[in-house]
């Protein structure tokens, strides 16, 4: 019978278990374009919604276009995850806030993460795309709100 230490030593480096101190939501990040399947996107969004409900974290989708940067943030309002605060920033119009259902958040995130990057359609073939659309789960205190 081998010890746990010997079992870990025999695993390839990429298969080491995560340290317990790492937050479960830390790797919930996605840039567009990506190669994930529609089923994988739904699963990814469901994982993010669970973390938003059980941790002090929010989700942020940042899209960049010729018209500027747009941010959409979602933060759970209740402990059961049925209501979320949606904060939306359009650089030209400022911040807007609304309370939305879990289904609305799920549908919006699945839709956005299933599309190509907003810059792909607006930047010509020979131009360099320096920014990508990005979705990320992070602590609520790190979500930017500029009024």
From TrEMBL:
Biased composition (Polar residues): 10-19
Domain DUF8030: 45-144
InterPro entries recorded: DUF8030
Region (Disordered): 1-26
Protein name: DUF8030 domain-containing protein
Organism: Natronorubrum bangense JCM 10635
Taxonomic lineage from the root: Archaea, Methanobacteriati, Methanobacteriota, Stenosarchaea group, Halobacteria
